[in-house]
Structure formats: C-alpha cells, structure tokens
Amino acid sequence: MRIDSTSEIETNMTEVTQKDPLVLFMPSGKRGRFPVGTPILDAARSLGVYVESVCGGRATCGRCQVSVQEGNFAKHKIVSSNEHISPVGPKEQRYASVRELPDGRRLSCSAQILGDLVIDVPQDTVINAQVVRKAATDRAIERNAAVQMCYVEVDEPDMHKPLGDLDRLKAVLEKDWGWKDLLIAPHLIPQVQGILRKGNWAVTAAIHRDMDSSRPFIVGLSPGLKNEAYGVACDIGSTTIAMHLVSLLSGRIVASSGASNPQIRFGEDLMSRVSYVMMNPDGREAMTKAVREAVNGLIGKVCAEGGVDRHDILDMVVVGNPIMHHLFLGIDPTELGQAPFALAVSGALQYWAHEVDIEVNRGARLYMLPCIAGHVGADAAGATLSEGPHRQDKMMLLVDVGTNAEIVLGNRQRVVAASSPTGPAFEGAEISSGQRAAPGAIERVRIDPETLEPRFRVIGVDKWSDEEGFAEAAAATGVTGICGSAIIEVVAEMYLTGIISQDGVVDGAMAARSRRVISNGRTFSYLLHDGEPRITVTQNDIRAIQLAKAALYAGIKLLMEKQGVEHVDTIRFAGAFGSFIDPKYAMVLGLIPDCDLTEVKAVGNAAGTGALMALLNRGHRREIEETVRKIEKIETALESKFQEHFVNAMAMPNKVDAFPKLAEVVSLPERKVLTDDGSEGGGRRRRRSRE
Ligand code: FES
C-alpha cells in the first residue's frame, strides 16, 4: 500500500466508514480512519508509521510511547482530545509503576482510539541542533532503523512435534511479528539452544531487514526481554574521524566524539597517502589497519561515555571521501591518484562489521553510503542526504571545503557534482604563518579602514586583541599563527581596506600610511601581529589563497553552467572549515558566488549527519542510492572553460561576475590596478565591482 502523506488512507482492517474516527500521525502526516477500539499501535502500523515495539504489545518494553496533541486542527478537520483515547488501563498502570512513563505519554499498544486524534510519535533525534553553532532549522529524523528487536515466547520442545528449537523460534517470529523466510547469522546457530533455555523460552531476536538479500536476518539473540540496541554513524575524514553512538530504538544520540585520523603519520593530505601506498608494498595494509584501529578506539570511547556495552551495537553506517572509503575497506586507492580517477566500487556496500575488523556485536552489519565520483565520495553523498538539494525547489549549492573541495549543486529537477583541487591553503598549509585551528591560532581579524591597524581574536581567548586584559588572557595560549577562518578574513579585510588590489597585490604606497605595510624587497607584506612570533601576511600567502579560492569558484561556476543558472538561491557550507568561516568574508573573497547572505549557512559535519540519517532510517539509504545514481558528475579537469573561470576568479571577488547582493551589505572598494611589485600601473579606474 502506498502511503500518501496528505491523503487519507482508508484502512481495510475491518469495515471502515466515514463515521469512524480520523487519526493523524505526526510528524509523518499520515492519517486514516479506524474503528473505535483499534489500538493506536495497530493504526500506526497499518499506515506505515514507524512506532517502535520490542515486547510485541505486552506493555513491558515501553518503546511504543506516543502522546496526544490536543486542540482544533482546522486544516485537518480534526478536534483532538485526550477524551478521544481510552483511559489508562491496568497494563499501562503496571508499566508506569515499574518503569517511568512521562506525563502525557501513552503506550500505543494498549491505548485505543475512541475519537478523532492527532498523535505525536516522539522522534528523539533532532539533527542540526548539536552539529552547528547556530541551529538553522532543527528537523527530526523519522526512525525506521534496519534493526528491529522482537521479543517472543517460544514453545517448549515436544517429543510429538520434533521441530528443532531454531525452527520453533522462527515459527513464533512469523506468527507474532510476521517475519517470513528468516535467515540466521551462522555464528548464532550453535547458541540458540543455550539462549532459549537461559531465557526460559523467552528471547529477544534482533532482526536486520536491510541486507543485500531481501530476506530478513536474525543477527542477534538474547535471553528474556532485550530492550536496547545501538548503532554507530561514523564519518572518516582525512584529518578527523567523527562518530555518533545512537539508540536504534529511541533515536537518542547517546554520545558523540571525534579522534584524529592516525593515517596522518603516513601523509598529511590525501594524495600523499596515495603516494605512500604506491611507494610502500605494505602501505595500504598499514593504513587500513591504522584507520580500523582508530574506529575501534573511538567506538570504545563513545561506549564508555554513554555507558554502553560495545556488543550491544548491531548496526553501523560509515561515510568518507573516496580514498578514506577505499582504505577503510582494504581497497588499494592507487587508481584514485591518477586520471581517470576510477573508483573500485561506487555503489553502496553492505558488510558484516567483523569482516572489516570492527569489534562490536558479532552479528552487527555495516553499511557504506555510495560514492558519487572519483573525488566526490560517500561523505559528499552523506552531506547531500543531510541537506537535501534533491528534495527542494531552490537551487542549492553545497560545498565541503578541504584540500579537495566537494561541490554539489542542484534542486528537485537535477543535481550535478564535481570536485575542485583547492589544495591545503584554506587549512593553513602553504601560508607562512598558517596553522591548524588550535588554541593560540588567530581566528578572527578586523582592520581599521582609516589607521589600517588590525585587531584579532585567538582560539581559546574571549577578548579581542585591542581589549583590555587581552595580553593576560592570551598568556597561556600565546598568539601562534593564523588558522583557516582568519586567513579568509584577513585577506578579505586587506581587500576591503585597500591594502591589496582587486588582483591581490599588496599596495606598496600604503607603506607610507602605515607601519603595518612592510617591504620585503620586491613585494610587500602586512604585519598582523608584532610579537613573538611575528605574524605577517605575505604576497605569497595572498597568492596561495587566490589560487585556492579560484579553483573552488571555477568548479562552482562550471556546475552553474551545467545547470544553466546565473545565481544560486541558497548555499550550505559543510565540514569543520565551513563552520568557522564568516560567509560574508567568504563572499568578499569570491570563494562562493553572490547570494543573499541570510541564505548562506554552515551545516557542520553534514556528512556525519547523513550517516546518522541512514543509520536511523533505512528509507534514507534507498533515497541516497537513487539520488547518487542520478547525480551528473562533472570532471573539472576535462572542462575547457575551467581555465577561463579560474583566471577570472583570481580577482576579488571576481573579474567578470557581479556580486549585487553582497554589495548591498558591504561597500566594495574601487578597482585599483597594481603591478606585481605593488606600485600603481595601468592607472585607477573608477569602476565598482558591483557594476
Ligand atoms: Fe512494548 Fe507497547 S509494544 S510496551
């Protein structure tokens, strides 16, 4: 039965008439009419609304909780009231006396429909709230996990019916829960008899229903009522591995943590890791081992934080860029290091977790999201799933900036994707005073347009550098260098204050105005911090930033051309870098195209959020598999116009593209043409970049 979220479903449970109560489930919006006396859980099931249940309606697990939304819902023509649900009966009373039942919550297996109702199915997982600094729109992930826990009471053996213990277990799982053609993980077969007897013939089976085979699998078996199951969503980044531990039954995030990717010791960036594999016969194996150990270590950490036994983890979803994806799975990434950047496998993959050395429950499964292209990986697929360009009408640009920027652009009609070789400049490498974001690193910069004096903030200190008490506050961390967000800001501020020209040349004439502009012989630098260490922004630093931002913008521009659009409606910055850069400065520099600034949002680790969505709802797995199949991949290196876009994008914000929306909020400087040595050449043209 196809469920339309807006239309009313005529259920065929029994004779249903227009007089029967109308029940609307939120947040899914599915609704239908049901005879008086129908348990809410049955109504939800018949509409395909996922409500958890472990005990099979015995009112012992407490997993089926719902609440009634009271009020007049005119749009739906429903007046919903607690009077329209059966009073709390003995089963619920018994549950509430043994375990806690929060105010207003009802057990949907016991509560029956008496009249029209709006029923709220609580979704404990609200995404975005914790992954971004400013929560945009919090949304709930509707649960429909791949693992379902099913409590059953198995018939005891009978000499007259010589059916095996496992077969009787399967029979009751079919009778009580409707599971047909069940398979069982082989390691459980020798344990079945012992577990059944230990549980006095009552057991909880963990059923996985998202295997390569369409048949459901018994992946876990516990004596008695096992009222919990956990899953792990993991994003393997080249620098950091991030993980969420989540209850598959409630959707609650139990713990989240991160760790450095130990592969860094084999090479800082992706390409140096590919080279390491090419140069060392055991290189691939060593890096696979290192990342798997790190994932296992992180599982131990989140389990300790959440007070969870790692053997209660039954499902896992992993995302990563193509090289991390391949190395984690033990695949040689050499082909990804050279054109045509062939992936060994691009589709979604399913494993037993133990097959990739992950130490969790022996029956745990592992799902890898599909990769989009040779340099646009399962992490970009995760970010796409999280932000959903394919789910909306607006033209959305989704950018994950790393040493290799992954770019996705699209809407409901069409989605295109590419990667662009931005290099490590945005992460502080290739910059004379650059460093990773860490205490002591300058993260914010402002330059006074009159005096050209800077003020800045460093990570770990609340005060700005020109505020009283800054020196004392910064004594512990020191001022050690510039991190990515500040590199963007300082170059943008230098442009806005006229220290550099639109072409990125430091204006030597400014040396007469400010001691901050200093000569290095043929070129000039800007002195940002006159202390120990001395922090300057050199002409070379600016060039490195220009090259990186031009590569990113040129990639974006190619995708815009493919889509036939001149502007984008909304921009999402994914990844750690995106969380800390100020969208205004990113636009002043021309990293991203012109757009209403209120439409530019940082979304934190969107790849990890996508993994979480796929973990909690297997529908999202099908959604991203289908979306990725349809995404059109653009290979920037093969596009003849890339070079032209790149050259234009070297200017700030851009030589040819206008930034009218940005110009409404920022006064962009007049165009000034300087030769490479910082002297005026070609004269001044009174042309504003908005024109
Ligand atoms: Fe277990 Fe309702 S299904 S308490």
Description:
With 691 residues, the protein is α/β, with parallel strands linked by helices. It folds into five domains: 10-120, Roll (Ubiquitin-like (UB roll)); 147-223, Ubiquitin-like (UB roll) (Roll), CATH 3.10.20; 230-368, Nucleotidyltransferase, domain 5; 381-424 and 545-663, no CATH class; 432-537, no CATH class. The protein is 26% helix and 23% strand. The chain has 17 helices and 34 strands. The strands form nine sheets. It has a six-stranded mixed sheet with strand order 1-3-2-8-4-7, with helices on one face. Strands 17-16-15-18-20-19 form a six-stranded mixed sheet, sandwiched between helices. A hairpin with a 5-residue loop joins strand 28 and strand 29 (535-537). It is elongated, with a radius of gyration of 29 Å. Mean pLDDT is 89; it is low at 1-13, 128-137 and 682-691. The site of FE2/S2 (inorganic) cluster has 12 residues, from loops.
Give a topology summary:
Blueprint: E1 8-10, E2 22-26, E3 31-33, H1 40-47, E4 65-68, E5 71-73, E6 78-80, H2 90-98, E7 105-107, E8 117-120, E9 126-127, E10 139-140, E11 147-153, H3 165-177, E12 183-184, H4 192-198, E13 202-208, E14 217-223, E15 230-236, E16 240-247, E17 253-260, H5 270-279, H6 283-306, E18 313-320, H7 322-329, E19 349-352, E20 365-368, H8 378-387, E21 396-400, E22 405-410, E23 415-420, E24 441-447, E25 454-458, H9 470-473, E26 481-482, H10 484-496, E27 517-519, E28 524-529, E29 535-537, H11 539-563, E30 570-574, H12 575-580, H13 583-589, E31 600-602, H14 606-616, H15 618-630, E32 632-633, H16 642-649, H17 660-665, E33 670-674, E34 680-688
Parallel strand pairs: 1-3, 2-8, 12-14, 15-18, 18-20, 21-30, 23-32, 24-26, 30-31
Antiparallel strand pairs: 2-3, 4-7, 4-8, 5-6, 9-10, 11-13, 13-14, 15-16, 16-17, 19-20, 21-22, 22-23, 24-25, 27-28, 28-29, 33-34
Helix pairs in contact: 8-14, 8-15, 10-13, 11-16, 14-15
Bound molecules: FE2/S2 (inorganic) cluster.
FE2/S2 (inorganic) cluster is lined by residues 53-55, 57, 59-64, 107, 109.
